Write the structure tokens for this entry.
Amino acid sequence: MPDQSPRPSPLDPRPSIYRGRFAPSPTGPLHFGSLIAAVGSYLEAKSQQGEWLLRIDDIDPPREVAGAGDAILRTLENFGFEWDGPVTYQSRRHAIYLDALATLQDTGRVYPCACSRKRIAESQAGSGNKSIYPGTCRAGLGPDQTPRMLRIDSRGPAIHFADRIQGPCVYELETELGDFVVRRADGLFAYQLATGVDDALQGISEVVRGRDLLDSTPCQILIQQRLDLATPVYAHLPVAVNQQGQKLSKQNLAPALDTDQAPALLWQALNFLGQNAPSELRNTSLDMLWQWAFRQWQPNNIPRRQTIQT
Ligand code: GLU
């Protein structure tokens, strides 16, 4: 008789096992910085016999590059990554984000904002290099004002989380980050909304990603709390920077990963993550490197640094 016992689907929102994810935006080819996040999240999942989901964060068409999503999948395959279940695309989840927005609006803690970027930058609280929205439209818009975007009212208790690499973090959202946008002036869903909702609804138990996203974490946790959703554990990896100290990115002309060099690049990524992969493994096969990494992965050896020069 076939086994009739219920089996958790790959998208069971409450996994009993570890579930991680890699969530690249299709804004260009993967580079060494993206490889670090992919390798770190993959090995955390594999070393715990967990699942590793792949999600393409394609919610921002103006920033997308045609064909980049498919190229990312091919590159990951050529590096030997194996993901569980079908690839998820944020562009196909608009109904979920709309639903989440409606629920947030029901709480009365989301409001339309009519301020332009210029106006926020000119406001007192917006001085310095980071503009923090001072809550101007929280009390409602005047009859001659046109709503541009939706913001979440971030007032409330501080957000605490224990980052597994960066240590304990506390954010006073209102003063440190301000009321952030959940639906943009161009009508698109904001990254914080889509990611906070997806990580929770996909049952991700641990989010492993670059330290450059640390400041997004309290925003995503706030969204999860307001929607009564589970919050994953977070681990923010050091970020790869170039000689000038700039994060590797398409804007800084970081070279695309060369799949012909996959073993050497994987070896380099493992050592970036403090894993001491022996030099004789540098020129072996991908398969041997992965086997070594699955056995030897030591998350405690990941440097507790914000950035590392490559
Ligand atoms: N899609 C985001 C990016 O590629 C990362 C999202 C995340 O890991 O939370 O930068």
Residues 19-109+194-309 form a domain with the Rossmann fold fold (CATH 3.40.50.620). The first strand starts at residue 19 and ends at 22. Residues 1-10 have pLDDT under 50 and may be disordered. Residues 32-47 form the longest helix (16 residues).
